[in-house]
Each structure stands twice: as C-alpha cells, then as structure tokens.
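Hey, resending since the last one bounced:
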Amino acid sequence: MATKIRLARGGSKKRPFYAIVVADSRMPRDGRFLEKVGTYNPLLPKDSEDRVKMDVERVKVWLDKGAVPTDRVVRFLEAAGVREKATRNNPQKAQPGKKAQERAKARADKAAAAEAPAEE
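The structure tokens again:
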C-alpha cells in the first residue's frame, strides 16, 4: 500500500485548519486515513509554536515504513530538523510574465529609436 503523509483540511469556510495525517494515497484528501500525526493552523503567526504541532517520533516511524511526505509536509519536517533542508531553485519565478516582457522590449526599442536621431 502506497502511503503519504499529507494535510487533511478541516475548519469552516475561510478559516482553514489542517490535520497532518498518514493516508493511503488512493484515498480522498479529507477521507479515511491511517493515523493523525499532527496539526497545522495557517492563521497563527509564523513564529508561533502552535502553528505546526507534530508527533515527530510517529512521523519517523512512518517514513521508515516508506510513507512519502507531500511538499508542504517536507517543509514542516525540514523546520523540525527531521529532514535535511533541500536547496530549491526556480529561476523562472523572478521573471515577469510574457506580456510584461513584451512591453519592456517595446519600451526599450522606443527609447533606442528616440536616442538614435539625438546622437546624429
């Protein structure tokens, strides 16, 4: 059975609260799970110790059994010191969108055309 350590959403509308659960990967997000190993409250400040609560020992047991954590849970595990911090590189993130690049190029061409007659 392929197991995942992932978030299951709870809470009311516009007030999210997540349980960190170990579930079969074929089950729905908020469906049946094998074990609840922690909680995550995104509404609390980032420096609050109650924002992410996790039973680290149980998480380690499940990781040894072959459970695969999701990206968000991996970040929690890195912050808790269970996993090594992975270097992330997304060079495309800082680039503006396609239309913004086209506008910038058009502005640069217009400025270059305005400077050319001034030089002569």
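The radius of gyration is 23 Å.

Sorry for the duplicate.
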